[in-house]
Predict the structure.
Amino acid sequence: MALPGLSAALETTRSEPAKASAIARDAAHLLGTRGGQFNSFITVVRDPTPAVERSSDQLLGCVFSVKDNIDVAGTITTCGSKVLADAPPAAADAWIVKTLKNAGAQCLGKNNMHEFALGATGENVAYGTTFNPWDPTRGVGGSSGGSASAVALRQVHLSIGTDSGGSVRLPACFSGVVGFKPTPGLLPMDGVTGAAWTIDCLGLFTPNVIDLRTIWNVIEPAATAQRHHQLRIGYLSDDSMGRTAAPVWSHYLEDVETLRRGGVDMTPISLPGLGDCPFIATTLAYSEIASLSHELLRTKADLFDSRIRGLMCLGELWSSRHYVDAQRLRAVFRQRFAEIQKPFDAVLTPTVALQPPKIGVPAHVDGDPPAQGLYTLMRFTVAFNVIGYPAISIPSGLDGDGLPTGIQLVGRPGQDATLLDVAQCAEAILGVMPAAAAGSDSEENTVACTK
């Protein structure tokens, strides 16, 4: 039995609340031990049941999972690392887990991830690589790759990840699902082991924007934004944020034309300077990571993947002056982007500059310097962590190789409801993605994405 879509599950449990447990148990049974052949989970909860005491039944019937750096009471939070494999189980749920459970949602387990959220390919030495649901020879992206895969395969209705440079939006794009990074600070990080506290935040994966709106209205109740004018989007029309692989750029321009034909006012813009944001993020993130990981590196350095250990040590190379200069540049770019964005309801960019790379093959776009795969992957996403803007990646169909493509919409800080309104309008024009080829074949999950 395939997992029913969210709307069908919620409708079923409204009339028969007892069926929520059966939905969750069936979903857990389908997962296997580690999320099946795609390795989307580290820990699976075998017998999930709704919370006995909950504030509402708004999400009763919804099953969700979380990245394994988010606490679930009674379960070890491994952060994808052997370092924490023997840690005691979490004593309490993270804020986001508690909020979802209080609304009736049931947690199926903890998703695979990059060790300590440091990476963007989906690889993990301790718990294995998460494979792309559309092509298992390719990576799923990271660091929240297991969460994206679980939603793409329709193993869950919702997964929660963390995003400090694109760790939600990037794997969402590679997996053909929606990935939403809200305004930083809007969702409390209590019970979350973040990578870099000044740019990290929680993020949500869902199959489509409609499901995301349903869940978001429970997590963060807000009135739906009302527009009284034609939707206006400023779209990136040049390489001011960095190069893009030719097939991805071509598909992106097709998306722009599809939105224009759908009645959206599309205006070309340039975003000068934002291409430097990956370097600002590196200074901020690795300095903060070095501070957080200092004791673990001192006592358990041999348990880390050598590549992750090297990244953690990078933070020792920057001085306090470098860190403060990076914070100053954040303010400059934040103000610059605010001026560019003023006339628009949202700004549009590609989500990622290239197709999902083959596993073990570094990410590279022609013309990029060698050995800078992380910058190549994050060049369109990390800027909006640096300047603190909400952003969402939505699927925009399949390319000529049958791989998912995505576009990124950027809203204004604190106006998340407006951004979701824009995203829903764009989804209505571009179409809804089906489940990944290896996922559910239920009618609700196989609505073709059209151009």
Q: What stands out?
A: The CA atoms of residues 119 and 361 lie 14 Å apart. Residues 440-451 have pLDDT under 50 and may be disordered.
